[in-house]
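Quick look at the format.
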Amino acid sequence: MSGERIGITEEVLEKINGYAVGKLKSEQVYCFSVLLCDNDVDRDYERFSDEALDRLAVMFRGRTGIFDHDHRSRGQTARIYDTEVRSYPDRKTMDGRDYRALMGFAYMVRTEDNKSLIAEIEGGIKKEVSVGCSVAKRICSVCGADGAKGGCNHIKGRSYGGKLCYVELDEPMDAYEWSFVAVPAQRAAGVTKVYGEREVNAEIEKLRAAQEQFCEELRGDIIRLGCFVKSYDIVEVEDMDIFALMELKKKLSRQLREEAASGKAAGVAAEYDSGEMEAFRV
């Protein structure tokens, strides 16, 4: 892929050379963009506030990219020369907010040693990233308590009165680095190419499709479980989000085990004990 195709303009080179010791030319550098973090609820049941994303955008400029958060110099691979917080009004986060993402635009100097790394980025092998930063506030979504000041007894990932508990990360104090990792905490974090929006949108659609497929599987499991649980009150699952579906499946699985143990579900107790109900476990 040529330098022109990935958008290495004079403006981009000027920003890159602001971090370089010597003046680099377009043919000497390889550029790509990275989705660093967003305002969606991640795998750790945490999310960055919109204000935090705006502040991190400034803090991540000039930060080095590494592997698996290994700070040794040989693990440093690229540097962010610019950032941008992008809004996607047609997409919502899992808690119903307008989706926003912090993009980092990175460069590396082309060498014989990093040819394979560039090929892996181009081929989608090196894709997921994680960020290292510190924040002053960790706000509970249920009660508003600040975890940095003692917090509360609410548990991340659980629902309280129909409200999902997660932690909102706010007031970032520092951004340490960004790192290529096997599995990022944030679901959408990853490498995207710099020359257009098409690749970003395709990645978003892929994630959305995977989430919907998982929701469909959960709905199917819930319907099957409901056929065995005598105390199950039929509810409409079509409009439930992924967290509500997971909670309902766990509840039905627990009820089925309890009924099987008490003999209320005698018709399926033998099947359950023999392991044929294993597919319903969460």
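Next, a different chain entirely:
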Amino acid sequence: MKYMSNSKKDRLNGEEQLVFLDYLKHSLENGFSLINSIELMPVLWPKKKKLMQKLVKRMKDGNSFSAELIQLGFSKTTVTQVNLALQQGNLIECLNQLSILSRLKQEQVKKMRAELSYPFVLAIMMVILLTFMQSFISTQFSDGNEHSGDLVMLGLIGVVLAGIYFLARIIVLLNKQDYDSMQRLTKYPIIGPVILLYVNYLLVYDIGMLLASGFSLQKMCEYASKQEKGSLQQALGQKIGHQLAEGTNLEKIVEQEVFLPNSLLVLLKTGSERKNLSQSCLMLGRGLFIDLTQKIEKLVVNVQPFCFILIGFCVIGMYLKLLMPMYSMMQGL
């Protein structure tokens, strides 16, 4: 138990990861090397001084930066992005992109919490009311042959529990952010298209960066397949590289791979030079990011009305639970 507690204590949550990325980015922008930037962390971030001192020590002992990021709680996909950028000399730009994404995520999480606060209070009041009805009112009109109200309430409780499980499952998969998790998330209703757009953005951005570094498609796949095992980039690089080696047509690969947008195929067909193609990919990435932002905001805004609808059904269920036994007794008079 002590080990688990220490392990959890040594991991950064979402907000802390954003702070870490921002501090690191600003240090690098000011001309410090990666190791010097990390050495500055205990000074720049007193709140996490002990954790940062441990990080500095492990880095000086020869541990890789990517391994340390995983230990700090970053996802494999994020770590792979950092690793790719580090090897290509684009770390600052990569950190800037990750900071923007993390900040967007944190802002939307805060909005969602604000949107859910009022429905949450209503839900608590509804549970209290239901308990009161069950304890004091329903017993006054109990009818051993009338269970329709109970069935309605059981159905609503089942829906609520299924919703909670659904939400918890999404959170677990989002925290993993590996290939399998993302593939499962794209099949979920409502959130699936948003996840797909998010992955499209990440991959198009990575492809643009690698093209700028002079990589061919085959070299990209070979390079990506050597990255963090289980990450989105590693799994895709291995899969697409294998398909290319078998002689599969590129157009067919893009069409079959759910994580690669068809707009990418249009760019690849233009036959432009790698530099121009890289710029086009980065422009496409910016467009995907704008779409992603809009979809996330729309999703968050629609959360509260959905909760109110669910609460409304629960209120109807409570009334039915109360009135059905009364109606049954009146019929028996």
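Residues 32 and 332 are 85 Å apart (CA to CA).

See the schema section for token definitions.
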